[in-house]
From TrEMBL, chain A:
<dbReference type="Pfam" id="PF06073">
    <property type="entry name" value="DUF934"/>
</dbReference>
<dbReference type="InterPro" id="IPR008318">
    <property type="entry name" value="UCP030820"/>
</dbReference>
<comment type="pathway">
    <text>Sulfur metabolism; hydrogen sulfide biosynthesis; sulfite from sulfate.</text>
</comment>
<dbReference type="InterPro" id="IPR002500">
    <property type="entry name" value="PAPS_reduct_dom"/>
</dbReference>
<protein>
    <submittedName>
        <fullName>Phosphoadenylyl-sulfate reductase [thioredoxin] / adenylyl-sulfate reductase [thioredoxin]</fullName>
    </submittedName>
</protein>
<dbReference type="Pfam" id="PF01507">
    <property type="entry name" value="PAPS_reduct"/>
</dbReference>
<dbReference type="GO" id="GO:0005737">
    <property type="term" value="C:cytoplasm"/>
</dbReference>
<feature type="domain" description="Phosphoadenosine phosphosulphate reductase">
    <location>
        <begin position="159"/>
        <end position="315"/>
    </location>
</feature>
<dbReference type="GO" id="GO:0004604">
    <property type="term" value="F:phosphoadenylyl-sulfate reductase (thioredoxin) activity"/>
</dbReference>
From TrEMBL, chain B:
<keyword id="KW-0349">Heme</keyword>
<dbReference type="InterPro" id="IPR036136">
    <property type="entry name" value="Nit/Sulf_reduc_fer-like_dom_sf"/>
</dbReference>
<keyword id="KW-0411">Iron-sulfur</keyword>
<keyword id="KW-0004">4Fe-4S</keyword>
<feature type="domain" description="Nitrite/sulphite reductase 4Fe-4S">
    <location>
        <begin position="119"/>
        <end position="272"/>
    </location>
</feature>
<keyword id="KW-0479">Metal-binding</keyword>
<feature type="domain" description="Nitrite/Sulfite reductase ferredoxin-like">
    <location>
        <begin position="52"/>
        <end position="111"/>
    </location>
</feature>
<dbReference type="GO" id="GO:0046872">
    <property type="term" value="F:metal ion binding"/>
</dbReference>
<dbReference type="InterPro" id="IPR006067">
    <property type="entry name" value="NO2/SO3_Rdtase_4Fe4S_dom"/>
</dbReference>
């Protein structure tokens, strides 16, 4: 949280919202705003903490500043309620505030900050493999909603979905939108997607109300160095895949403890059971759709009136695990299923 | 019972380190009393009439022997050799030196205790049925849920600066031994759909100047939604509760002003937009906490005990104590024993350091290391073998702890009143003492049966006078201490507020007036009718007459 210098004394209104403003008015003011100041009338008057928490929970993403009669000892409450900054009063001692802000608290309850509540830290004492095994044992027969809700509960703020916005992506993204539409969705833009996929991506994002689709791009420098003529896909598809998919996604995904995929058991190339929670390369993979069969996937399209991928009218496309990058030789993807790195990513995508 | 892990310990040590620094700054003058006040209140330190007072939380009233022993040690080393158990099942020390507070808190932390949130406008210590885990009436042990609420509410970023303090009580049986309807939020565990744990939620109860009985806001909130639902209630209250008048700032006033239906809508509106997933306690965490409260390894015993039955025949004092202070237990051959802190002429709730040591030892030897604080200001040994009761009684008796008056007329709840409290109008302790001396005859008390007499030194009602079957309230009449009497109040599942019978009485008239009311009850009661049932049948009138009969 930042400390802002006191404002110069003037009689001009400073635009701050008084802490006793009704919630509906505060919410109205937040629409489209990228900065809001809430003024605490008295340090004893904790309404501002609830206002901030509610704004954050309802999706306000702009800056939140606390002003007014506040004690340095309230720094933790402000921070945890979702404030980004405090406007100091004239005469306040910034050193006292800084000292309080430097404190790292043990916290029990979830709030609007990044502090990890004790409940989750307790669970984190087990290794990732143990945790995945435990969750898989518990949820192996659960429905997709339950699996995904559990995943969000177990990895709060540390979970993302991988999606290529391919043929069956709508099912998995619809599910995600039901559980938490603000979950990051990592979309790999290889620069080689069909245009239809890109417009489908935008359409689906809007339709499902997903608020956090992140475009993952290959590193420009790496690309210029390794594939200057943009023809590597022809000469060395594996290297192309590594450059355009594996490495960029690896970097983007590193910020998360768990990644949600759209994999289903019936697509698996081996006879092994597809776990709903598993560990791959030090990260948990959550496969909420693992137990669905092709008919159930079809039914979900119908039940929720999900738009089909423009290229998905051929039944084949839908059954193919890989995305449909324009020139990546989509026929080749399933055949490569046994290969190590590329399989990981392509199989994770739908 | 619950045991701290590294995280619980870390949280408490962080608070102590911070408060130690604040005390140091206060002692050397860098903080004024004004600046220090909100900080000390967060740590349970009040400034009373004579000195600072420290209030230590006994979460949901459950202690082990090491904790009670430590409470005794603190009374002995840092105070005047005694402590006072409160109606919030906390313990108060009336004479600690400010400079000793960090040392006291450090000692408390050694036994997993603290004073966090025992004061201030935050969520206070959760209370529950004193027989939790021992009674055969409960659906499940409510204490894991109390512990969950304790953790969730500790240093809550959003709810530490509420309009006013906030009290929650949890029970798990139809019989209400925790007075949940006098709480800001009362929770009763019920069986929801599919037999899941659910909570019947009451809101807006409270005592004080404007007393209210809580109303039902939800019949069965699923356990997994409990924290989300509580968050929604507290949000609605934090945003809408009054802050312009300290006497109208409790949630009861908001609920009464809006009406329960409109308040419910406010809560539901908040509930809808909450991040439920975040607030859902992980199943593993619930299981982890519940495991701490697993029933102790009871032996398989016959229902009857030879030694117990023989002692009943041999010793009439033991027999009387067993009749009045021993309660039925879920395990055959076991019982719960109430240790009355209401000796004749004593201060209700006071206990000496030596007595704490004695009870701690008894708990370790005879009650699976558990002892409870009851909101009626008594202690309870929850799991004692019938075989052991004679020995437990002998030890209690030897230390002045075997008063056989649990739930009888001299088992008086009384706040500290003008002897200690800076808000008081009148003393409550001497009036309670006078009553207990006047009615000391236990034969008479047994004849009267269960009667709850509650006394407060002012309208803040810390002594629960509104819900006493007989209530006594200290008022100030032109600078003199007077006492207003109510009858017909009740704290339980049939909660009701007492009716004021008439103008207030001087201190010396209180005990005789109550005695006359009690005699009237004996004269008009039906066969087997308890005092409160007679009042409900006849109304206050006969008692009013008796109380104001020319003395
Ligand atoms: S009821 Fe009044 S006198 Fe008694 S403890 Fe409470 S505030 Fe003090």
């Amino acid at each position: 949280m930042r400390l802002l210098d006191p404002l110069p004394e003037t009689d001009e209104p400073d635009g701050a919202i008084p802490g006793d403003t009704p919630l509906a008015e505060v919410e109205a003011a937040a629409v489209g705003a990228n900065r809001l100041t809430i003024r605490f009338g008295a340090f004893r008057d904790g309404r501002g903490f609830s206002l901030a928490s509610i704004l954050r929970e309802r999706g306000y993403g702009g800056e939140l500043i606390a002003a007014g009669d506040l004690l340095p000892d309230q720094a933790r409450h402000l921070k945890r309620s979702g404030f980004d900054a405090v406007r100091l009063n004239a005469g306040a001692d910034p050193a006292e505030w800084r000292a309080m802000l430097a404190v790292i608290d043990t916290v029990y309850q979830p709030a609007s900050d990044v502090a990890v509540p004790v409940w989750h830290r307790r669970a984190a004492v087990e290794t990732l493999e143990q945790k995945a095994a435990r969750l898989d044992a518990r949820y192996r027969d659960a429905d997709p909603e339950t699996v995904l809700a559990a995943a969000h509960r177990e990895f709060p703020g540390r979970i993302a979905q991988l999606s290529s916005f391919g043929a069956e992506a709508a099912v998995s993204l619809h599910l995600l939108a039901q559980v938490d539409p603000a979950t990051p969705v990592l979309f790999l833009d290889t620069g080689q997607h069909f245009l239809q996929t890109l417009s489908y991506r935008d359409k689906l994002t809007a339709r499902l109300g997903l608020t956090n689709v992140k475009i993952v791009l290959p590193d420009a420098a790496e690309r210029a160095g390794e594939d200057p003529k943009n023809d590597m896909w022809r000469s060395d598809p594996d290297a192309c895949c590594d450059l355009r998919k594996v490495r960029p996604l690896g970097r983007a995904a590193a910020a998360y403890d768990a990644l949600i995929t759209g994999r289903k058991r019936y697509q698996a190339t081996t006879r092994e059971r597809l776990a709903v929670f598993e560990v791959l390369d030090g990260q948990v993979r959550v496969n909420p759709l693992a137990n669905l069969d092709a008919d159930e996937v079809e039914a979900r399209f119908d039940d929720h009136d999900l738009p089909a991928h423009p290229l998905a009218d051929q039944a084949t496309l839908r059954s193919v695990a890989g995305p449909a990058p324009a020139r990546c030789g989509r026929a080749r993807m399933p055949a490569r299923a046994a290969g190590p790195a590329p399989t990981r990513w392509s199989a994770a995508f739908t | 019972m619950y045991r701290y892990d590294e995280f619980d310990h870390a949280l408490v040590s962080e608070r102590i380190a911070e408060f130690t620094d604040q005390v140091r700054r206060r002692v050397d003058g860098r903080l004024t009393e004004d600046q220090f006040k909100p900080l000390r209140l967060m740590n349970g330190v009040y400034l009373q009439l004579h000195a600072y007072m420290l209030r230590v939380a006994v979460p949901y009233g459950t202690m082990n022997s090491a904790q009670l022993k430590k409470l005794g040690h603190i009374a002995r080393v840092y105070d005047k050799g005694y402590g006072h158990f409160t109606t919030r099942t906390n313990i108060q020390y009336n004479w600690p030196a400010l400079s000793d507070l960090p040392a006291i808190l450090t000692e408390l932390a050694e036994v997993e205790m603290h004073a966090i949130q025992t004061s201030g406008n935050c969520i206070r210590n959760v209370t529950t049925d004193v027989f939790a885990g021992a009674t055969d009436e409960e659906i499940e042990d409510p204490r894991p849920w109390c512990e969950i609420i304790r953790q969730w509410s500790t240093i809550h970023p959003e709810f530490s600066f509420l309009p006013r303090k906030f009290k929650i009580a949890v029970i798990a049986s139809e019989t209400d031994r925790a007075a949940i309807r006098t709480h800001d939020v009362g929770l009763q565990i019920v069986r929801g759909e599919n037999g899941e744990t659910a909570f019947r939620v009451f809101v807006g109860g409270g005592q004080g100047r404007l007393p209210h009985i809580a109303q039902e806001i939800a019949p069965a909130v699923p356990g997994r939604e409990l924290l989300a639902y509580l968050t929604a209630i507290l949000r609605a209250y934090n945003l809408l509760g009054r802050r312009d008048n300290i006497h109208k700032a409790r949630i009861k006033i908001l609920v009464a002003a809006l009406g329960i239906d409109a308040f419910r809508e406010e809560v539901e509106r908040q509930f809808e937009t909450l991040r439920h997933e975040d607030l859902r306690i992980p199943d593993d965490e619930l299981a982890r906490i519940q495991a701490y409260f697993a029933p102790p390894p009871f032996e398989t015993l016959p229902k009857h005990s030879g030694p117990f039955d023989r002692a009943l025949l041999a010793d009439p004092d033991f027999a009387r104590w067993s009749r009045n202070n021993v309660r039925r237990h879920r395990a055959p051959g076991y019982a719960s024993a109430i240790i009355s802190l209401k000796p004749v002429g004593g201060v209700p709730g006071d206990m000496t350091a030596d007595q704490m040591d004695v009870v701690a030892k008894l708990a370790r030897r005879f009650s699976f290391d558990e002892v409870r604080a009851a909101y009626e200001q008594n202690l309870v040994l929850p799991h004692v073998k019938l075989d052991d009761l004679p020995e437990v009684w002998r030890t209690l008796h030897a230390h002045g702890l075997a008063t056989a008056n649990a739930d009888l007329v001299t088992d008086v709840i009384a706040c500290p009143g003008l002897d200690y409290c800076s808000l008081a109008n009148a003393r409550s302790i001497p009036v309670a003492q006078a009553l207990s001396k006047r009615l000391a005859d236990l034969d008479f008390q047994e004849k009267l049966g269960p009667i709850r007499v509650n006394m407060s030194g002012c309208i803040n009602a810390c002594g629960h006078h509104h819900v006493g079957h007989i209530g006594v309230l200290g008022v100030d009449r032109k600078g003199e201490e007077f006492y207003q009497i109510t009858v017909g109040g009740s704290p339980d599942e049939q909660a009701a507020l007492g009716e004021i019978v008439g103008k207030s009485l001087p201190a010396e008239d209180v005990a005789p007036a109550i005695e006359r009311a009690l005699n009237r009850y004996l004269a008009i009661r039906h066969e087997g009718e308890r005092f409160i049932d007679t009042v409900r049948r006849t109304g206050a009138e006969p008692f009013r007459e008796a109380i104001y009969e020319a003395a």
